[in-house]
Amino acid sequence: MPQGQIAFRASPAPAAQEALVALTARYGQTDLDSAQIIVALGGDGFMLQTLHDDHSAGLPVYGMNCGTVGFLMNTFSLDTLPERLALAEEAVLNPLAMTATGTDGTVTHALAINEVSLLRMGPQAAKLRILVDGKERMPELVCDGCLLSTPAGSTAYNYSAHGPILPIGADVLALTAVAAFRPRRWRGALLPKGAVVRFEVLDPQKRPVRADADTRPVTDVASVEIRSEPNVRHRILFDPGHGLEERLIVEQFA
Description:
This protein is of the alpha+beta class.
């Protein structure tokens, strides 16, 4: 990748801003319209923000970790960046499309690369009805919340909620409860990637629920419908031998 064709993006964190100054001094800065690649400096949260904000450009995004976990990022280095970009391996991710309807009738659309989660907003547990492809699968789930995760997001909130880690190429989604109270031992479900999942909030006035598409919250939802969006393609680059497939395997043996 020749110099002068990289659009650098950086989180507000001091380490990322310092990296931005050093990298642009060495390799230059290109407007998004003229760039061939985006380099994101920060942590996983900033990578997700970059993918959401710049997906319409259709450019691959190479992340360098200036944050904490950095599961979606590569190791930071000032040196040999063009060579690393030329050798990088690409993973293509399809996000989830969320349609959330509020108790006031407001409809919100959002995309989620990792997961869509529903979480209680008050002291009482949420009560959710779950339908898959229009068929009721659970008339009432009493819980702190529930989430639908992509393979890319399966090591994030989904894994913390004891959901399964999914291979990156798997055409499945993970439906995982958060602190399920009834049915107490329900561990969730694996669903086909093409499934349409609908959550209906039971008694939303007494038991308010919010929905999060990655980091975008929608409060006081009455229902949430989620489906995979194959027409949106997020392109992420990784150093050879350190792609998402390898990272998902390593995570399971950590």
